[in-house]
Amino acid sequence: MQADIEIYVLSCPTEKIISWLENTFTLVRKSSPSPLCSKVIIASNDNEIEVTILEQAAGKRFTSIWFDSDKTPWDDDIACARQAFEYLNCEVRCNFQGWEEESNQDPDQWWRINSHEEGPFIWN
Length: 124
Description:
Elements: E1 5-10, H1 14-24, E2 26-34, E3 37-44, E4 47-58, E5 62-67, H2 77-88, E6 92-95, E7 109-113, E8 118-122
Antiparallel strand pairs: 1-5, 1-6, 2-3, 3-4, 4-5, 6-7, 7-8
């Protein structure tokens, strides 16, 4: 189980991301602390999970979706990315493996899902 889940979506409107969350979970609360940042609280299996949606998180075209909880329904970032891609139909990227301190993984090694392919790649 991962401490949190974070994925990046390419050129995907925040409203569409929130729609995915509303269709997948129970939306408890929604706020917009800044023009580029939205926060939602979702309920999943009797757990409330804070989700931060940050536009322009990686360059101007990528939006970060960060689930700040170890109680998400996914085993890892890739499982979340797959579900997001199915609903959002836009390219999704995430860490290739869960981030671990002292791990030997390449920090530029990512997982990408789009309409052409799914698999590891170097994002730099």
